[in-house]
Amino acid sequence: MSAGSCQVYGSVSGEDINSYPKYTGSPLLLFLADLWLFLCNIFYLPCIFLPLTPWPCGGLDELYPSLANIFDICLHCVLFVLQLVFLVSLPLFIWLPFCVYVLYIVTALALNTLICYALNRGIPADGLRSTEDDFSRRWNRHEDEYWIFLNGICVGRNWLQNNVDRISRTFHRPVVGVHNKTTGVIFDIIQCLIQRCLLYATNDVRDCYVLVRRALYRPEVKKVVLILHSQGGIEGGMILDWLLDEVPQDLIRQLEIYTFGCLANYFNNPYRDTASCNAAMRYVRTGDITGNIHNRSILHIEHYANKRDFACRFGVLNFDHSKPQDRRENRFMGKVLVSPASGHQFNQHYLDTMFPLDPTNRFTREPREGDFMDTDVIVSRHNRCEEDRPVTILDAAGLLDAGTGEVDGTSVNSVLSGSAQNMKVGLNMKLKMHQMSRLWLYRNGGRPVS
pTM of the full predicted structure? Predict the structure, then answer.
């Protein structure tokens, strides 16, 4: 990746009391807006699967030609053809007698369900856990942490197991996967539209909410890490709303959220008090720091996105903070780390490129020249376009501050010094992507100090 080809957007500061969240608007208007957005980005649909290679993690990569992966891909191809034919045939067969028409629909849906059962079967009710072996038993035990993963579209049992195993090897923690069951790529996309427009909560949303809530209330757990991919970002946004409704503030601050290829159209993270909100509004208008402008309920939210990934263009990147906002436009809370790459598969296109493993597939290796985490980044202005106030170091070091941490007992300074955080600098700050990523500090069993 070329220097400066990657971008980081800080979370939005301040609140506009005259605006309303887009997701509270008319479901019909939301659907029409999503349909238009879908059509505008339709040529990026193949980028969900491209590039097909490489496969640095072998069988863990979704498109690697293992028997299990080939079986899943073949079933998805069959589902795609059946669903496409079914949807096209619905208006053509409307002339049939009512009972025959209904029987046709029921038969088609039953066949779809039967094929999907082959993909989704065998998931335990309490979630799918990462594989444990002799190597993982030697990891440092992080008994005060609980890691949860919620998958995206087109994921059956095989790919979910590979996802949680890849997360576990990257960060040296046990991971519990909550299964967002696939119904085939076309029906999954339709379900995403319904969830975005109607805030419809499926069973996996409820299951994941219960799991996160229980973890937050466990006295021995001091940190809950929720990793979301694709459609899981939509569902994670709803889960977060429910948690903000019910869980005490001191507990919910133990939650950290990291998304990849997020399809959501909003992500909430309110201020904890009016003073912080007012300080942030003053900072947006004048650039003056008069209080804690980052005092939000969730301390750490990061969104990782590939610029040519259809899901990101349909989701998180549609709410690019450098664009002017209107009254119907959402503000996506959390910093956004953008790669110019293509691809939507969680292991192959995100973790393999952003958190690459060494040849043993047991440790996350250090960044090399050309890696995503080694690139020089553009710290992008997230205030409105009509304002020419330059980005300050606090923009980068507030919600863009990854903190410091330890990896295998060795202290790692991943960000700028505290004295530098009060200096105003322009847009030409030279920073590496890994300095912006808090999640990077968790690799190989490390943990941020803050």
Answer: 0.88
